[in-house]
Amino acid sequence: MSSNEMRQFVLAEVPKGKLSRDNFRLETAPVPTPGDGELLVKTRYISLDAANRAWMQGATYRDAVEGGDVMAGGILGEVIESNDPNFAPGDLVSADGGWREYVVLSGKVCQKQPNIEPKTHLMSVYGVTGLTAYFGFLEICQPKAGETVLVSAAAGAVGTMVGQIAKIKGCRVVGTTSTDEKCDWLINTMGFDAAINYRNGNIYKDMKEACPDGIDCYFDNTGGEILESALFQMNMHGRISCCGAVSSYDGAPPQGGPRGVPGLLVVKRLTMRGFIVSDFFEGSSVGTRTDAINQLKDWVDAGKIKVLEDIIDGFENVPDALVGLLAGENKGKRLVRVDD
Ligand SMILES: NC(=O)c1ccc[n+]([C@@H]2O[C@H](COP(=O)([O-])OP(=O)(O)OC[C@H]3O[C@@H](n4cnc5c(N)ncnc54)[C@H](OP(=O)(O)O)[C@@H]3O)[C@@H](O)[C@H]2O)c1
């Protein structure tokens, strides 16, 4: 590869079943040249997100990723050349830059980032992950001290943040995850009060044991069977924050379900609300994006939030990192370090 070439991963074909490394093709391409108002950005870190897989299923809050497209994904990058007066070489930016070593982007879609160390915190706690937990939990669940909070995909990036914020708010916190080892880790390392292995085969009964007083707030990262079990165990006036549905991302779209939604919502006066994190950036009952970052920073500085990062080295490992994330390999926020 010559010095003016770079590597990129293309989604070779949209997977019909489970995602595999073979669905991606590694290519070399010329390092692009920025035009008016554009920046040349060198990728430092790539964020692996469960939603990356959902984007292959069709248009969501962004366009679908289709066969032949460079794989989309959040990046933290350094500006190398700038034709936008708002950015200078050396600036750190975040954007949907995709899985490539260099990218040209309009300055309008890049968010300038402060130079903090470690810079990975800009993705794991002060970026989409931390903000999703902050707004999705506090604004929608409106937790009160003493309430029982259930969070699914609890050992993942968003889930570990939600659990910790719920503890800060004085709640009893229960998480679901895929192995006994991860359950122990949630309780002994992350301070959860109880954890449920959803693969043990009796999610409803295990949830009842772990939440003997019912569930006041459910932060739903998974949808599917976990959501259905939680619905039946919600307390009166309970709140459900619908953050994502990872149980249905990696395979055929779900058929029907969950049962019980309309009747239970009425009888128990439940609130069930979906959101996209950016809905709240300009303002919410728990502040703006800047307020959220300041609050998260105070909690991190005070040692009330542990920042959990699962960093994999090497651009060539991005596809495996996503396949592994969907299989539950990660604890906390998974990133690939491309060049730092
Ligand atoms: N609404 C928004 O604005 C917004 C923003 C960001 C993220 N999200 C959502 O937040 C959720 C978490 O995303 P993340 O990026 O932080 O990923 P993550 O939680 O770090 O990783 C995904 C986790 O999902 C779990 N999982 C995989 N297959 C599953 C299945 N069939 N059933 C149950 N759990 C399964 C795995 O953990 P286990 O070992 O526990 O199975 C895996 O670690 C996703 O639903 C995502 O779409 C929403």
Describe the structure.
The chain is an alpha/beta fold. The chain has two domains: 5-124 and 307-337, Medium-chain alcohol dehydrogenases, catalytic domain (Quinone Oxidoreductase, Chain A, domain 1, Alpha-Beta Complex), CATH 3.90.180; 128-301, NAD(P)-binding Rossmann-like Domain (Rossmann fold, 3-Layer(aba) Sandwich), CATH 3.40.50. 26% of the residues lie in helices and 26% in strands. It is built from ten helices and 15 strands. It has helices spanning 51-54, 121-124, 128-141, 157-168, 180-188, 203-210, 224-232, 261-267, 289-301, 318-326, and strands spanning 5-11, 24-30, 38-47, 74-82, 92-96, 102-106, 111-113, 148-151, 172-177, 194-197, 215-220, 234-242, 271-274, 309-313, 333-337. Strands 3, 4, 5, 6, 7, 14 and 15 form a seven-stranded mixed sheet that branches. The chain has a six-stranded parallel sheet with strand order 10-9-8-11-12-13, with helices on both faces. The chain has a two-stranded antiparallel sheet with strand order 1-2. Helix 7 links the parallel strand 11 (215-220) and strand 12. Helix 3 (128-141) packs across helix 4 and helix 3 crosses helix 9. The longest helix has 14 residues, at 128-141. It is globular and about 60 Å long. The chain binds NADP nicotinamide-adenine-dinucleotide phosphate.
